[in-house]
Amino acid sequence: MTENDRLAIAAHLHVLLRRNTGRVTDTEWLASNADYARAIIHFARQHAQNAQSPQNASFPELLEWATRLENAWLEGATSAPGVPLVQRAGELLRQHVDARKYVGPLR
């Protein structure tokens, strides 16, 4: 997947986050920086899980687009030959990212 594809996914996720959480993201940085993308994916999933209610129908879409962005990054990730995508996804999720570095109050 190209950086342009990641940029398109990041732009869609940006709109969903802005609409549902008020969070503003940098779409170009989401498409080019894996650490920032990982932190925003974590934030989106956390918000979607906390916001699950019958009145909030947007959380499945937020989860879907966070997963799309993660998959876009995983497709471009280099790893040992023969390592399945599912295993690489697990490795990505286990990596600790200090979300406060990228997600927090505006200054």
Which blocks of ≥5 consecutive residues have pLDDT under 50? none
Q: What is the average of the pLDDT values?
A: 78
Q: What's the alpha carbon Rg, rounded to whole Å? A: 14 Å
* Major sheet attributes: none
Shape: globular
Distance between the termini: 34 Å
Q: What is the N-to-C order of secondary-structure elements (H for helix, E for strand)?
A: HHHHH
Strand content: under 5%
Given the helix and strand composition, which structural class is it?
mainly alpha
How many strands? Answer: 0
Number of helices: 5
Q: Which percent range fits the helix content?
A: 55-70%
Describe this structure in words.
- This protein is mainly α and 107 residues long.
- Helix content is 65%, strand content 0%.
- The termini are far apart.
Quick recap:
The protein has helices spanning 3-21, 27-32, 34-50, 59-76, 85-94. The chain is mostly helical and 107 residues long.
Walk me through the topology.
Blueprint: H1 3-21, H2 27-32, H3 34-50, H4 59-76, H5 85-94
Helix pairs in contact: 1-4, 3-4, 4-5
